[in-house]
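To assess whether the prediction recovers the assembly geometry, we first specified each molecular entity separately, as shown.
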Amino acid sequence: MEELITVQGVSFRYHEDQPHVLRDVSLSVYKGEWLAIVGHNGSGKSTLAKLLNGLQLPEQGDVLVEGYNSRDEESIWEIRRRVGIVFQNPDNQFVGTSVRDDVAFGLENSGMARELMLERISESVLKVRMEDYLDQEPHRLSGGQKQRVAIAGIIALRPSIVILDEATSMLDPAGRKEVLQTMRKLKEEEGMTVISITHDLEEAAQADRLVVMNAGEVIDEGLPVEVFKKGDMLEQIGLDLPFPLQVQRALSEKGYDFSRLTLSQEELVNELWTLQLKV
Amino acid sequence: MDITIKGLEHSYSKGTPFERKALSNINLSIPSGTFQTIIGHTGSGKSTLIQHLNGLLKPTQGSIQIGDFKIQAGVKEKRLKALRKHVGIVFQYPEHQLFEETIEKDILFGPLNFGVPEEEAKKRAARLIQQVGLDESYLSRSPFDLSGGQMRRVAIAGVLAMKPSILILDEPTAGLDPRGRREIMDLFYRLHEEEGLTTILVTHSMEDAARFSDDILIMEKGGIALQGGPETIFSNPEALKKLSLDVPETVQFIHRLEERFTKNLPHSVFTLEAAVDAALSILQKGEENS
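The predicted structure of the complete assembly is given in tokenized form:
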């Protein structure tokens, strides 16, 4: 697997007289994967995202994006072109007066020729299914639609990695579904690499790989089924287990043995079926 | 205080080309002490409705009776300030409204404005800071050095300091992590019980709606689409699906079990414990038969 991002022994704090927000963090992000980063409020997840595209620089250690080190001033734009971030609040990241202007913003800044720019705009709005809204003003859009426009603005720049920084946490359930479906499609059809910073453990359960952060450190990493085996640890650091897993754990305590971990309701009901046949 | 809403209609920018009807023909009665939940998609009229309950918005038709206060279309209610003492609103992201140098000053702001003597107000602040899960040492600190979740607790204490008898919560847990969410909801439910409050919760969380509500109101396009207790509302997943709303996970689980095992199970399953019991009942029946 091709390694797109390498984080090596990174420590970071916002001010010298404040405690470290990240401590000796190392991790890798591979091409084409959906990586979920979970942890409670204040665990350092969002700070890490800012270091991944050079919005903040490490105090110690290095962040490498496709070989570019964020410490090199000349690399910083190469890094930002490759790593796009969708932030939490849909209202804070709309800069244009229409959907078209908003998607054009990043392209204009990159000094792209008009012809190519128009092509990129129609291509990106089509991918997030916002092509019918090009002339709409931002305040007429729902939260989910605004976040899809933010995604269009990012993918127009053809990044290799999109970071969702709690990008669905201010949306209603329908908006959340919209945004996640859009990103899944981009991952599957375009081979986009996705890093999703989230509290939503149901969503994290569907990721290819999971990184758990607590108090500025990476405390676990692996396939969702492997990480969720450590349910006690996750609960201890303030995370909720997905509902099917909670049911399964309660039943295990009553003496029922499951052959595998169930992260979806469907899996759980199937396991219960098997158990019921055995007894 | 009982709340009675009759024929409420609200149009924004009435009489201009931009007129937009946000609420129409809302009839609703919320007896004192009720835990009332309001659910609906963005733009369904939830926020417009709750802003009528302390006179931030005035009806363009119909009336709202709260205790002996009456807000009526076209009639000026002169006692809005008195009404606002009784109705506390925790808005979305209330931490954005903190502004004082110290946490104590921020909590005191409301009561002092309403003429509560300083000493009495300070006593309230000392009690409230603990009630929201922080200790007294926080009172002298700046609210801006706190984490987002802690700031939200301080903002909530500021609303409670007015001793409202009706507490309106507009998505109070948005953006918090799961533990923060649970702690804040438990806090509100405890206050609801201990202080005998009337609580009106606007939420997207079907889990919270199922767990805490006496009554659930589902809004769509400025009107009431469904209303009833949690059992009634969630026993009809099809109606919810039509409104693009989900049922709580516990209820989904029960339906899946019923389908797979072709058995009837109790439908008012809104907690993890109850869901586990339902699963156990199926496994144990299996044992009896063998």
